[in-house]
Amino acid sequence: PPVTRMDAKLSLSLEARRQREAERLARIKDPQAYKRAVDPAELARQVAEKQQIRQTEADFAATADAERIAVDNQLVQLEEERRRAERKHLAELDTYRSTLQGRATSRDHDLSDPTALRREQPGRVSDDDERLGASSMQKFHGEDLAISHRVKGQQEELRSWFGEAVREKEAAQAEAAQSDADFSSSMLQIDGLKSSLEASAQAKRREAYSAVAEYNLAQARAKKERERAAQAAEVRDNLAEIENNLSSTLLNEDPSVSRSYISPNRVRPDHFKGFSADEHQAILQQQAEQATERQEAEAEERAWSSQVAEEIEHMRQVRCSTEAQLEAKRAEMRRVFAEENRQLAETQKSNQSFLDSVVYPNQVSEHFFSFFNTTSR
Questions:
Q1: How many degrees, rounded to 5, is the angle at CA 25 between CA 208 and CA 7?
Q2: What is the mean pLDDT of the chain?
Q3: What burial letters (b/e) apply to 329-364, b meaning 16+ CB within 10 Å?
Q4: pLDDT (tens digit, 9 = 90+) per residue, 205-240?
């Protein structure tokens, strides 16, 4: 996987902390370090380290917030695209109805056309006009010779009307099916984008958790190694001290042996027999100070460890809370989408039912056929 800027920062932070732990271990193993007082530079470094840790956590939180905001913006844009497509579909449907489903194109418009009389021919064009009836005194035969042609023409006209209505209905159904398919495709794309964004966020969270866990394990292993090394060094020092005391020739209690023959005010280190009471008291006092410093250092280390644990727990709780909020938002979005889909389905169903039952019933009653062959016109 590609290395992000946050991964590089975490790697640098872990490497710097390992280097500081190695330097601290070297100082612990140095016997001269116990004789020195508190190191201000080391305290300042520790303070700077804690500030760097807080800054790193703040940067991580800011990056996570920015990613969440970007995801929300993308979802808003996709929702706007869906609404724009829906508005476009409704506008096209209104245009289709206004242009192709007008009153003049209905199947029974000729029966209720108010301008039909204006377009009709005069009552008589010539003596051989076939439209003249028996009262015109032009034709006296009682049979209609053109009835078969007229009936056939009427049937052809009805057949063409029915075919045109069927074609219009099929075209409307095909357009509605295509609109539904486009809407379903857009919803699938939105769901796929949401799934990919959620998977990316989960992968980043798992990487962050893994880095924190590895760092904690490394700190625990380093601490155990330091304790083991300190115990081993102490055991070696004790054994060496016992061995030196057993094999040393300076076990007698004559302090004069330690005085130099050349200069009585000087002490021979190779014949040293012990300290005076004041020197013993000074050593005990120094040892007590060292023990106090060691206890303070251990207490500070325990406090630091407790603070780190509290911060990690706080980060975990914040992440859990953030994930719960995201899950609640996703559930709310799913509910809103489901409600909108249900409303759209109900609207489409009612429109389709209206078209099938009112606009396009595709039924011809006996009343319509009762007008056939009732007049010669």
A1: 20
A2: 81
A3: eeeeeeeeeeeeeeeeeeeeeeeeeebeeebbeeee
A4: 888 888 888 888 888 888 898 899 989 889 888 888
How many angstroms separate the CA atoms of 35 and 32, rounded?
6
Q: How far is 283 from 277, CA to CA, in rounded Å?
A: 10
Give CA–CA dist 315/213, Å, rounded: 13
Q: Quick one: tokens of 104?
A: 């003049």
Query: Up-side HSE of residue 375: CA atoms within 13 Å toward CB?
Result: 5
Q: How many C-beta atoms lie closer than 10 Å to residue 189's C-beta?
A: 13
Q: What is the pLDDT of residue 81?
A: 92
Contact 273, 255 (CB under 8 A): yes
Percent of the chain with pLDDT over 90: 11
215 to 144, 203, 219, 309: CA distances (angstroms): 106, 18, 6, 12
CA distance 319 to 284: 52
Tell me the average pLDDT across 41-65. Answer: 87
Residue 373 Rama label (left phi>0; alpha psi -120 to 50; beta): left
Tokens of 307: 């603070």
Q: What are φ and ψ of residue 344, in 5° steps?
A: -65, -40
What is the reported pTM? Answer: 0.22
CA dist 118 and 130 (Å) reads: 20
Could you give the CA distance from residue 365 to residue 373 in angstroms, rounded to a whole number? 16
**To the nearest 10°, the Cα dihedral for 267, 272, 274, 279?**
30
Residue pointed to by tokens 């300042």 = 44
Which of 19-33, 118-132, 357-371 holds the top average pLDDT?
19-33
Do residues 139 and 132 make contact, with C-beta atoms less than 8 angstroms apart?
Answer: yes
Lowest mean pLDDT, pick from 34-38, 255-259, 285-289: 34-38
CA–CA dist 227, 4 (Å, integer): 36
pLDDT band at 134 (very low <50, low <70, confident <90, very high): low
What is the band of 38 on the pLDDT scale with cuts at 50, 70, 90?
low
Distance (Å, whole) CA 231 – CA 29: 11
Q: Note the residue count of the chain.
A: 377
- Mean pLDDT along residues 133-148: 59
Q: Quick one: which of 172, 183, 177 has its CA closest to 95?
A: 172
